[in-house]
Structures are given as structure tokens and as C-alpha cells.
Amino acid sequence: MAPVAITPISPPSPTLDDTSKLTKAGTQTILSETVSNSSPAVADLDASKLIFTPNLNPKSVPAPNSPEVWSQNYTTDHMLTARWTEQSGWEAPEIRPYGPLSIMPTASVLHYATECFEGLKAYRGADGKARLFRPDRNARRFLQSATRISLPGFPPEEFLKLLKKFVGTEAPKWIPEPGQFIYIRPTMIATAPALGVQKPREALLYIMMVLFPPLDEPSPAAAVPKSLPAPSTQTPTQETKRPAAGMRLLASSHDMIRAWPGGFGNAKVGANYGPSLVAQGEARSRGYDQILWLFGDECFVTEAGGSNFFVLWKTPEGRLELVTAPLGDGVILEGVTRASVLDLVRRTRPDIDVVERKFTMQELLKAADEGRLLEAFGAGTAFFIAPCSDIHFRGVDLVLPLGKGVLADFAMGIKKTLKDIMYGNEQHEWGVVVEEEKL
User: Fold this and answer.
1) Which domain does 181 fall in, by range?
2) How far is CA 94 from CA 45, 54, 124, 327, in A?
3) Is residue 390 part of a domain?
4) For the chain, what is the total number of helices (H) and then of strands (E)?
5) Positions of the region Disordered (predicted)?
6) Which residues are CB-contacts of 32 (< 8 A; sequence separation ≥ 6)?
7) Is position 148 within any domain?
8) Are 358 and 431 in contact (CB under 8 A)?
9) Contact between 154 and 44 (Cβ < 8 Å)
10) Within 10 A of 155 (CB to CB), how many other CB atoms are there?
């Protein structure tokens, strides 16, 4: 059969020499249609249609730090669900008793990883109010992740209304005391019962809440500063030394890559996490907490486990610089905590240059050798702000000042400031109060 010439539709597609632009163009088109509601033929997600079905067999609330909490499997009484079909769009969402989902063995999610999720927390503040932290960012990222794998779009503001309603229903019982929090996991899966690599025709959005232990607790000997202090450059003394309690990182090997340019590392999809578990298991077996993911022969530093990674150092010219890997090429997840760290430091520390750029392990090693490496830390929802004590990089042990007994004052100052917002000690637009309902 002779080749057939294909006339491009208007506007023309991006050139074929940049396949990442094809994906970005398609994703952006779908996102713009979702936001502008330019495809009203099927029903949008609508929070006003929410149905509530109470759980008639409620659970008891376990004690803090109990085995149930540490199992990270103890959920609240309810979950929120919303079903979508290609023919009809979104059905009425429902808050209903937590329980098993019913899907067929041929469901797309089980074969083609058509699944995405989010992670955030609800906090009980010192003033007794329940709060979410910048949930609008989670809503937008959830939509972007869904769009990346052809799951259905939704108005982010409607998702936020549902999220707040769900939190308002569960928070009075499950985070009753100031200082408590609970983890929230919104998820979307493709459920159409048919094999074949194709765009999902049915989907289920659900939100559940799980009790989590405080994974970010520092060593009891660690002092928590009241603000963002100048980073310490002192030599460890008897007063500053303490057992190293920071995160220990094992740099990934040359044949293990988490994400790549033009890929989907910037989407929070399950396909990013399963393949990383082999490396994670190796790290744990060798006494490390997380993998420090590197990319390319240059050994560009990308992320630490499931967290964004930051380094505070002095430049060769003597300037303080906070550096983290950049967005834009599909490798780095746009973390909510990451954005908050960047925003906070830019607003409050004019003496620090905030830089988003590619940097390598060789730069870290050189800075350490020259005494310019001050701190490094991971930033994410689960572990929050986690200072790093040491990194093993292909036979070389890089010990940071924290591993030598110098407190990570800068990272801990950021942590305290953000925590004050989350728990209402500081009134801030990032801390979103949720209206609660007594059942």
C-alpha cells in the first residue's frame, strides 16, 4: 500500500523532533478544556450533588503511636467516591462507609497502570480548628496527573469542595486534639472491564483518610529555632554534638533511573513508584533511609526517595545559595512542600540566592571538600522536612555537617515556620480552615 499524505489540522502539531512537546501540547489542551468547561456534553464533577451515607458500624480511634497507627493501614469510618463514564460523565459523589472496591479482573488499572493519586494532611490547630495546607496545589496537580494518563478531568474547585466536605465530616472524631494530623489520599483509577491499550472509558475517584505516625520527628536533642536563622558554619563542639538523626541516603546506581526528560516523573502516578521499590529495598538493607535518585552520566541530583531534595551551600564566591533541581523537563515532581520552601525562603531570606537548576554529585563532593556544604534536606508531605546526615555515592561517603553533630538549623527553621502555618500558630493564607460537622 502506497504511503498516504496526511494534512495537518489547524493549528499544526509540534514538530516531530521534540516528542515531549507533543505530550505537553496534548496535555495542555485537555487541561484548558477542563478548566474552561468547553466540553459540556457530559456531566462535570459537582460537589452540590454530594450524598452522605453514614457508617453504622464505626471504628474506635486508636491511641497515638499505637501499632494500629504505625501500620499506616487504619482508616477513618468513611471514604468519598465518585464514578465517571465516557457516556455520562461524573455521577453524584458520595461519602459512604469505608470498604472494599468492586472492580473486574480486566479493569484497565490492573493492567496498564492507569492510576494517579495525591497526598496531603489535615491538621488540628492550637485554636481547635481543622486546616488543610495549600490544598489548591494538590487539586491542580491531581488534575495534571490524571490528564497525563488520560483519566477524566474535573473542575479543581469542585474537587476542593468535596475534599473539604470529607475532611469536615471525619476530622471531629479522628483528629480531636490540637497538634494531631491525619493523612489524606485522593486516588483515581480506570475501571472499565476490558483489555486493550486504550483511553479509559470508566473511572473511579475516591478519597480516604489514614492514620499516620509522625515520620518527621527530630531527635529529642535537636533544638528547634524560633525563626529562619543563619546556617551554622561552626566546628562541632561538646554543646552542639548529638547523635546523627538525619536522613541517610544511598545514591542510585548508574543502571537505575527513576524518571527521564519527556517522561512522567512530574506526574504523581503509581507507575513511578513500583519500579523504585527494588532500589528502596537495597537502601534499607544497607542501613539507609532513602535512595538519592541521580540521572545521566553527569549524575544530576533529582529527588530523595519520594521527596524533593535541597542543598544549602556557599558558592565559591562566598554567597549563600539554596539549590534544588528544576521543573520543566518531566523529571521532577512539583511538590507542594517544595514550592512552599522556595516561596518562604525567597520572601524571608534576601541573603540567600534561591536557585532552581541542574546540579551534580560532583558539585556536592567538591563543596564538601572545600567546606562550603552546609545542609541538605528532603521536602515532601510524608516526611515533611527531613535533614540529611550522609550520602553514599558509589564507594564514597559524603558526611554532611549534621552527621558530624552540627544542628541543621536552617532546615529546622523552615520546618517550624511551615508547621506554625499548618497548625494555626501563624495565620496565613496557606492554612485553609475547614468547616466541620458533628455527626
Assistant:
1) 19-210
2) 12, 10, 24, 36
3) yes
4) 9, 19
5) 1-20, 222-242
6) 38
7) yes
8) no
9) yes
10) 18
- pLDDT mean for each 10 residues of the chain (439 residues): 36 38 56 54 94 96 91 96 97 98 95 96 97 98 96 97 98 96 98 90 97 70 39 37 69 85 85 87 92 95 95 97 94 94 97 97 97 97 93 96 95 97 96 89
Q: What is the Cα–Cα distance from 385 to 236, expressed in whole angstroms?
A: 22
Alpha helices in 89-241 (DSSP H): 108-112, 135-148, 156-174
Is residue 252 located within the same domain as residue 203? no
Sign of torsion, CA 300 284 340 344? Answer: negative
Q: Grid coordinates in use for 429?
A: 493564607
> H or E segment at 23?
helix 19-36
Contact 400, 246 (CB under 8 A): yes
> Does residue 258 share a domain with residue 201?
no
The CATH number of the domain holding residue 372 is 3.20.10.10
201 vs 44: CA distance, rounded Å: 15
Kindly give the residue spans of alpha helices, DSSP state H, lying in 123-248.
135-148, 156-174
Q: Are strands 94-97 and 51-52 parallel, antiparallel or unpaired?
A: parallel
CB 378 within 8 A of CB 247: yes
Burial class (CB in 10 A: 0-12, 13-18, 19+), 425: middle
164 and 275 assigned to the same domain: no
